[in-house]
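Cross-posting from the chemistry board since nobody answered there.

I work mostly on the small-molecule side, so proteins are not my area. We synthesized coenzyme A and want a rough idea of how it might sit in this target. Sequence and SMILES are below. Is it possible to get a predicted 3D structure of the two together?
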Amino acid sequence: MNIILREMKIEDIDQVLMIEEESFSTPWSKDAFINEVRDNVLAIYIVVEVDGEIVGYGGFWRILDEAHITNIAVKKEYRGKGMGNILVMGIVDYCEKNNIPNITLEVRLSNTTAQNLYRKHKFTSHGIRPGYYTDNGEDAVIMWRKMD
Ligand SMILES: CC(C)(COP(=O)(O)OP(=O)(O)OC[C@H]1O[C@@H](n2cnc3c(N)ncnc32)[C@H](O)[C@@H]1OP(=O)(O)O)[C@@H](O)C(=O)NCCC(=O)NCCS
């Protein structure tokens, strides 16, 4: 199995969109991804490839000394195989090398799988945004990872 982590390109977006649509109840559109990859100078997106197939992706916005993770998702049939770990490690590694000491994200209160993933990588909970998700009014847990 040949696993590669690399920056997302415009040509990747069709594959990324399929993962996005099976992963989120309010998926981003193709245009949203194109805008992020092509036009948003603050945005950094990565993909993980297994034998040439994109099986996961993640991204964040760099805002001064903070990285705000926007989304991370793994293709259903590849979940539970360490791809989420590879993506979070890729983001943390990028931040460490580029002097971005603080990383934050919001995650659904019910999404304990993702919370476990982030906790494993030293993110901790720092409060709740009540009713943050507009589709069902669910609260978001705010998580931060602060480098020592
Ligand atoms: C969250 C997600 C990215 C995890 O990706 P993954 O490739 O399955 O994760 P990994 O196999 O690398 O597992 C990493 C850690 O996540 C947690 N985890 C993964 N699957 C889990 C499960 N079924 N139950 C509980 N915790 C789980 C564990 O802490 C695991 O650590 P371990 O390997 O020591 O057990 C994936 O489930 C996903 O795409 N979910 C839908 C989209 C989503 O919710 N994204 C996050 C939005 S904030």
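Reply from a structural biologist on the board:
Welcome over. Reading the output above for you: Residues 23, 72-74, 79-85, 105, 107, 111, 113-114, 116-117, 120 surround coenzyme A (CB under 6 Å). The helical segments are 13-23, 30-39, 83-97, 112-120. Happy to explain the token format if needed.
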